[in-house]
Design a protein that fits this description.
Layout lengths: L2 H23 L10 H4 L6 H23 L2
């Protein structure tokens, strides 16, 4: 993939995830809401953003499994 294609894929994914997060937070108390945007990498490097996107679900699954095992 070219850098431009990665950039477009990343921002499409971010827009989808922000919408999903907003819908998932509806009806939840502020204490239980998640803030997806706060998890995004604070960089303009396209490769870093793209890798974050590719690894996001895997990292979340590992975190959930770790919390379940406690």
């Amino acid at each position: 993939m070219t850098l431009e294609e990665k950039k477009v894929a990343y921002w499409k994914w971010v827009n989808d995830m922000v919408f999903i997060n907003m819908m998932a937070n509806m009806g939840l108390s502020k204490k239980h809401r998640s803030d997806f945007q706060a998890e995004l990498p604070d960089t303009d490097d396209v490769e870093t953003q793209y890798q974050f996107m590719l690894n996001y679900n895997t990292n979340k699954a590992k975190e959930l499994n770790r919390l379940r095992s406690l």
